[in-house]
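mind reviewing both lines:
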Amino acid sequence: MPSHLTRHIFRRILANEPILHRDCLRRQVYSTTRRSIQNPLRPLRHNGARNIARQQHRSFLNFGMFGAKKSNAKEADIDPGIEDMMQLAKLQRMRARLPPPEDIQEALRLFIRHKEKKKQAMSDTQAELALRALRFLSESSLNGLDSGAAGFQHLTRFETSCLSKVLSWSRTSPLLAHLEFLKYVIAITPKQSKTVYRILNYNYVGMLAHLGRTIEARQITIDIEGDHFGPEVEEPVALDDERSDRAMTAGSSDGPIPGMWIQVLKGFVLEDDEPRALETLRMLRERTWFNQQDYRIASVMLRLSINRSRLDDIRSWFAELWRSCQSRSLDRKTAKTMGMDLHRVLQWCLENDEFEFGHQAVRQATTGIPPKSVWDAIFVWAAGTGKGADEIGRMFGVMEKMNEEISDPEQWRLPDVVTINKLVEYATSKSDPYLAERFIALGQSKGIEPDAHTYQLQMEYRLKINDVDGALIAYKNLQSMDISSDKDLPTVNRLIVALCKGKRHDFDTIMNVAMDLSDRRARFEPETVSTLALLHLNRDEIHDVVDLLNTHAYHYSAADRGQIRDAVLAFCLDPSTPTSRSWDAYSVIYKIFEETPREPRTDIMKNFFARERPDMAVNVFQEMRKHSRTDTMPTVDTYVAAFLGSAKLRDLESLEVIHNQLKLDFNIDGNTYLTNALIIAYTACGQPRKAINFWNDIVSSKEGPTFNSIHIALRACEKAPFGDLKAKELWERLRKMNLDLDQSMWASYAAALAGNGDNELAFKTIEEAEASNELEVDAFLLGSLYDGGQSDSKQAEIEEWAKDKYPAVWEELERFGYDVDAESERKRFKIDRTVTP
């Protein structure tokens, strides 16, 4: 039985759900073979499914087979309300008629309640959309566009509470969009709602501190504290759905004001700004509510001392922290803090060879009856000082012996799987898989079986040494554990990436792991999505790519979406990628990553021109042209790149399509640079007479021609019938202006004359200019003149003249070598005559 079917059956059994397979092939065959015995009109039942006898028909007469193949692509997995807010943003960019404010209000409320229910943080892109929606509602209220009263309430107090809670989940890893959204919510929240207002500011201060704007956070804290508020939170109030306001006080049990000050102090420590941290500490001590025994302050200052590697300060703050913790009741939070800070101190001692202080810290920590989290930190310290698994096993006995002083068996300190996992984590950090295995074996010898986290760590250290097969075995062991906490997801994501990049495992192995995560409704990491997307693209499975991205891409931040898009873009632009797959990659970018800016799209357009597919390049250009975002619409540079692409391929059809788009584009102001590109393109595409007509546009423009414009115009004259007349007219104007004409300009003029068969005038012009010291005949000039020859006989005439007049220069030119033009079958010397706009 396939593994995925086995998992399906067991999950159905655990969920107490029936196992239904209504399209079982065996049952269909069984039903047809029983018709001679059973009434064919009588339905059969199997697994609760109704199986109707199928009528025989001739499949070759099924004319539906000629219909279009149906796509079973999944719809985009977008949070409720987001689609309406995305549409609002698009309509605002297009300056079109906006939706009713009531619809946007309902969408915003749906989104906030959904996020709170799912306990999901919002991405920065979602925060931007929500901010745009809230601003739209506020502006509609001010302008009287909504049907409500003047005091239009966009969010209820409960919804504001939910929003505060959702934003708090981004407090330690915020982006600018989260900050701007929260700032606007605070601005429209009345100060009379003291509880809501203060908790919003609590989260705002935390975001500022983590974004490196702690000075601003401190000033806001001072302002909030002095704004007629006491340090304590008001009593919770009943909200719309009769739920209490507990959500608003989460994370600030001692009141939001002290919590805000602690966040400010942490912010300065994160910035390693010691003077301001000490200044903030002094301000804290001046507060009437300041508690000398607040272990949070000692913990933050201990971290600053460790960052600064000052032993005396570490010793002092560690002692202060330990006194503060021991003065409190030993609850779970205090015990966890003691273990974490002791671990941090001991790790610093290991890294800086401060073993003496480390032993002192251990002795201080073991006075009395330390909590188990402290013992776990001590065991890791012992491993760091070189003790093996057997010695640490004996230390377990020392800890267990102290249980004689504890009367309550539930409070006994016993080694458990958390202890083993801490040791395995240490071994993993030291890239010592053998030691990690010894610690796992130590636990098993004590009757401690590995849990999900153990197997996760096992996967991590095996992936660290590129043992993908070993990590896969650990993953299979992990599947039998309770993984409802989803803590293993980052490691499983890394396993999928390693399987894809290793290229040693088959597709089914990779998909089995990926499908396990999908069945758990887990969110893939951006690197996993991009790796799987490339895997599917290389297998021409475009619908699977779209399904994958529709499932995950709309839940990522802008940076994460950009990471995935860049991976697909690199695949698209890779010259080794077949054109069909390159087009598939572009289709994915077009469908999923609507925000892709102009530059990558221009690169894609150039990519298809380079692949000699102007039809695809024009399609990319037209989709840019139809876009609603100003940072995506084509600019002059985009048009120039498109014209030059058509010129290189000499594809008149694509050139005319793009030129017609330019005529209709009111966002583009024509200039010399753009017109130069048009002349180059039409000249290359066999329309030099049309190209010359654009010269008048340049001359009559305010900007006027550049030297490049003159070269380009002369090149058009070289190719156009009777172009020598226009070239002579242009040359006379240049001579009258007494411009300093360089070698390349003389070469372009001579080639324009030769291009129309007037070799005699070209020879005369060159000889007279040389005689008057206006030019020095070189290989480039003779090569340009020769390339301009319109027939073999004319080229032979030029060659004969050059060998006679300038034999040394001609020999130098011949050393460049030549190619044969595919269209005219005439020789072209390998000199660079390209012109640029």
